[in-house]
């Protein structure tokens, strides 16, 4: 049975770094540098014949993270096997790094430096590894997901009698709301499942009433799935084909401590069409 240890549990890929595992190996994470803040990219142009400077926009740089820790095993063989697990976990491809704070957060990292391992005695080892998150935002481990069919009104009837008897109609709003509880704007992913004959339009509305919209001008057939990824600015049909050419408008961002409501319409109503939005709260 795995036993959690350490003040802040850390997991790299599928490898927990703050546990006593089933093999009796103790993994102890001793430091996590770079988690609290990445660097920033900014420029200042000095003012001529005046105090101060002109400030450019400020952007976060990629987030390098150095993880140090110790391994203590019941045998040399168990120690060596644990070291091999660590080497495999520090992957050259995208890997989730999860830190179980009060609000658990995650980043996607890749190996970006040497993995240094020093064996201590017959049963122990100390390590230091460097990974980098190209996207510096720390995201909630909870993925929000909301779905809505196209807006519609069904039913409803007023009978022509002395006391008008009204049967209330059923209304589908065709809208979803995604929330960002973090400290930096986050970008949603919207997926539209066809059929949408004649394309569709999605309007994003902030609490202050400011709106932006995106319009897709081509038809989606039954079973087609179109993914609008606001983070990568890509529009992909059925997981393979780019359809960026048919998309116009403004990519949405959900502001800090706020939300956006997405409403959508299509020139030709079909009950099978579906809009799904996903997002994670994000922190600097």
Fold and architecture overview:
With 284 residues, this protein is mainly beta. It folds into two domains: 3-136, Elongation Factor Tu (Ef-tu), domain 3, CATH 2.40.30.200; 144-283, Jelly Rolls, CATH 2.60.120. The protein is built from one helix and 31 strands. The chain has one helix spanning 76-89, and strands spanning 3-4, 10-12, 15-16, 19-20, 26-33, 40-41, 44-46, 53-55, 59-60, 63-72, 95-99, 105-111, 116-120, 124-133, 138-140, 144-149, 152-154, 157-159, 165-167, 170-172, 175-180, 189-193, 200-205, 211-216, 225-229, 234-237, 241-242, 247-249, 258-265, 274-279, 282-283. Strands 2, 3, 5, 10, 11, 12, 13, 14, 15 and 31 form a ten-stranded antiparallel β-sheet that branches. A six-stranded antiparallel β-sheet has the order 16-30-22-25-26-27, with no helix packed on it. Strand 13 and strand 14 (124-133) form a beta hairpin. The longest helix has 14 residues, at 76-89. The two termini are 35 Å apart. The relative contact order is 0.15.
């Amino acid at each position: 049975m795995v036993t959690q240890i350490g003040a802040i549990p850390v997991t790299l890929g599928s490898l927990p770094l703050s546990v006593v595992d089933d093999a009796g190996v103790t993994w102890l994470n001793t430091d996590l540098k770079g988690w609290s803040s990445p660097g920033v990219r900014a420029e200042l142009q000095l003012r001529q014949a005046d105090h101060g400077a002109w400030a450019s926009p400020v952007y976060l740089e990629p987030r390098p993270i150095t993880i140090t820790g110790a391994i203590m095993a019941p045998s040399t063989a168990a120690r060596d096997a644990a070291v091999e697990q660590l080497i495999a976990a520090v992957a050259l491809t995208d890997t989730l790094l999860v830190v179980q704070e009060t609000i658990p957060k995650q980043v996607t990292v890749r190996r970006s430096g040497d993995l240094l391992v020093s064996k201590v005695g017959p049963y122990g080892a100390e390590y230091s590894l460097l990974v980098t998150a190209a996207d510096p935002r720390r995201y909630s481990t909870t993925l929000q997901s909301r779905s809505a069919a196209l807006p519609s009104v069904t039913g409803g009837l007023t009978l022509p009698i002395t006391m008008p008897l009204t049967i209330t109609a059923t209304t589908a709003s065709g809208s979803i709301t995604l929330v960002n509880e973090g400290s930096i704007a986050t970008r949603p992913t919207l997926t539209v499942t066809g059929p949408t004959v004649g394309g569709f339009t999605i309007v994003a509305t902030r609490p202050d009433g400011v709106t932006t919209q995106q319009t897709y001008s081509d038809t989606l057939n039954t079973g087609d799935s179109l993914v609008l990824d606001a983070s990568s600015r890509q529009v992909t049909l059925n997981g393979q084909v780019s359809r960026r050419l048919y998309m116009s408008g403004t990519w949405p961002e959900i502001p800090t401590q706020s939300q956006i409501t997405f409403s959508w319409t299509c020139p030709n109503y079909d009950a099978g069409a579906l809009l799904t939005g996903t997002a994670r709260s994000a922190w600097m």
